[in-house]
């Protein structure tokens, strides 16, 4: 986690902006502008060899490119004040393959702007399959590539996803985690394992009482600590972080003590109800140890600005998205500074 | 599950072929042939507007198209003897966006050949994010589409993924399940929730003893039964199935009794050690209630045939893949018929 911690320190800002667009969160004129571009490109490409797309694919491509333009505006607006973005792949996957392209483009663009990119993918599977998912971090194995003659952009590995860390689901046990830990070590990246999620029905599973007297999520917390124990960085945190929801402040504080070498990714701030006071206990005595995510609070700030007009051009609407997101990100930073940097 | 059960009855074959390719499982000349095609297409496209691909993307595209050609050979070889395929998205996701294209192409091609397609995606997230993942089943919402003028291929919904069922991870609780159940009802599809996975370290989590005296996976089994209770089909099984590994025969048999209205997807047959005897107890008295997956046992059968020669052409190698896969699928069918249709 040293790279993430350094970025947080440089900005004096333990917050991450969640890039989780939906159709309702993007001003409609952005999709319209993208649609015009796609139509022009489609006319041009239809002279070529592969322009056959179904109506659904065409609609999905338009949404996907709209998401990317929206994200680019947000990234440009916040890259000098926040250390990281969290990109929720579900929102992109909802659009099929075109959405996945927009996801990787978003991750790559954010990295180019100097941001640490957390891919919120919540993957988890067994042995060889987990190893395949771990290529989110490790990229294409060069030894496995049948086209070893192709030029490499990077000396160490062929990155395909452009993520610096990913989130992982622990339900499959260690088999599902080890390949990610190995990949994270190889590539100086990190993972965050789901421990205590912010949603109401997380209690169905995570609060179950075990025969040992612990809650289930506490047992998972101990496993996560173990899984990270041989990858401690210079800042005292391992490469294996934990997802701990802002909506559980007492539990989060107890977990902070229970797992002193585990960095927390804290979702649920803002729209889901978590406040700066709620998350303060999830930080260590030095104000490190956690990064707090806000998605709608930042990227939907334009809707609450009162400045949006349906007659705006796409560029005007994106300018509003950007200025509202920047102000919301500054407000969040300042709230967290007051609560955390005691 | 009625559609899947009908397909199984029609074939008298409760097995599903897992399309989980890796670089080592595809004859190398298939990648070479695809590479030549890609080079030609690349030359043609580079006259156009968007041919800029990195070396990694080029290598990934070659692998992805090789996977699709490999899958097509297997699908053509088994479509008249097996009712379903299970496509493990991790193997494709390992190749980045190009892999995702090959995944959806594989699913669509399998559906076109009449196969029921299980997307092994093991997704799971909270409310609005789970709803986004549920578009695997429900496709692009037409109301949400900004290009409502685009023609629809299907009256009911715009399918993007071409899956008939998907696998789901239960760690987030009901919030993460409900959107999938709703989507499955809307589109006459199904889901399979992870209950007891086939991998060794599943015990880290799934065998934990609860204060109630049950194992954790038994509690999850009861939740899964509940989640399906209002979607029973004509055959007595709900739309919410369970993943129960072949490597746990006694537990599988006990789960069969515990959840009489839950259809099982049973991985772990063959390469992972499960036998027809091991899985027999996971079926009901009528020989229904489960479908057994084999991946490497079918798609890697060509490697054990003794007939492969490195001098084979790509077409010759794919013919061998096809004939070996067909024979292995027939053998598995016959083993299951003996063990299950008592």
UniProtKB/TrEMBL annotation, chains A, B:
HAMAP family, per the entry: OMPdecase_type2
Q: Which GO terms describe its molecular function?
A: orotidine-5'-phosphate decarboxylase activity
Q: Which domain of life is it from?
A: Bacteria
Instruction: Specify the pathway.
Output: Pyrimidine metabolism; UMP biosynthesis via de novo pathway; UMP from orotate: step 2/2
Q: Which SUPFAM superfamilies match?
A: Ribulose-phoshate binding barrel (SSF51366)
Which gene codes for it? pyrF
Q: What is the lineage of its organism?
A: Bacteria, Bacillati, Actinomycetota, Actinomycetes, Bifidobacteriales
Q: Which UniProt keywords apply?
A: Decarboxylase, Lyase, Pyrimidine biosynthesis
PANTHER family membership: OROTIDINE 5'-PHOSPHATE DECARBOXYLASE
Q: What is this protein called?
A: Orotidine 5'-phosphate decarboxylase
Catalytic activity as recorded in UniProt? orotidine 5'-phosphate + H(+) = UMP + CO2
Question: Which EC number(s) does the record attach to this protein?
Answer: 4.1.1.23
Domain Orotidine 5'-phosphate decarboxylase, chain residue ranges per copy? 14-311
Under InterPro entries, the record lists:
Aldolase_TIM, OMPdecase_AS, OMPdecase_type-2, OMPdeCOase_dom, RibuloseP-bd_barrel
User: What's one GO BP annotation on this UniProt entry?
Assistant: 'de novo' pyrimidine nucleobase biosynthetic process
State the active site.
122 (proton donor)
Q: Which family does it belong to?
A: Belongs to the OMP decarboxylase family. Type 2 subfamily.
Name the CDD domains on file.
OMP_decarboxylase_like
């Amino acid at each position: 986690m040293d790279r993430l911690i350094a970025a947080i320190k440089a900005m004096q800002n333990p917050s991450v902006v969640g890039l989780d667009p939906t159709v309702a969160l993007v001003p409609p004129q952005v999709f319209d502008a993208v649609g015009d571009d796609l139509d022009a490109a489609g006319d041009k490409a239809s002279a070529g060899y592969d322009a056959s797309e179904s109506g659904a694919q065409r609609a999905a491509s338009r949404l996907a490119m709209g998401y990317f333009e929206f994200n680019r505006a947000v990234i440009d607006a916040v890259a000098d004040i926040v250390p990281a973005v969290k990109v929720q792949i579900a929102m992109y996957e909802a659009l099929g393959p075109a959405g996945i392209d927009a996801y990787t483009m978003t991750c790559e663009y954010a990295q180019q702007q100097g941001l640490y990119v957390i891919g919120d993918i919540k993957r988890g599977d067994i042995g060889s399959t987990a190893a395949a998912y771990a290529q989110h971090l490790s990229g294409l194995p060069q030894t496995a590539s049948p086209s070893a003659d192709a030029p490499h952009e990077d000396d160490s590995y062929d990155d395909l996803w452009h993520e610096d860390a990913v989130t992982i689901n622990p339900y499959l046990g260690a088999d599902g985690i080890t390949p990610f830990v190995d990949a994270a070590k190889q590539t100086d990246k990190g993972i965050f394992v789901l421990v205590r999620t912010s949603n109401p029905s997380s209690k169905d599973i995570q609060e179950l009482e075990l025969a040992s007297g612990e809650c289930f999520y506490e047992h998972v917390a101990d496993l996560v600590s173990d899984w990270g124990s041989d990858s401690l960085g210079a800042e005292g945190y391992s490469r294996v972080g934990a997802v701990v929801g802002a909506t559980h402040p007492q539990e989060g504080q107890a977990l902070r003590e229970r797992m002193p070498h585990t960095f927390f990714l804290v979702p649920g701030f803002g729209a889901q109800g978590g406040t700066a006071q709620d998350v303060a206990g999830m930080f260590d005595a030095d104000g490190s140890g956690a990064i707090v995510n806000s998605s709608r609070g930042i990227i939907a700030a334009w809707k609450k600005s009162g400045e949006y007009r349906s007659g705006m051009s796409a560029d005007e609407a994106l300018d509003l998205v950007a200025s509202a997101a920047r102000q919301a990100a500054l407000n969040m930073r300042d709230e967290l500074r007051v609560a955390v940097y005691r």
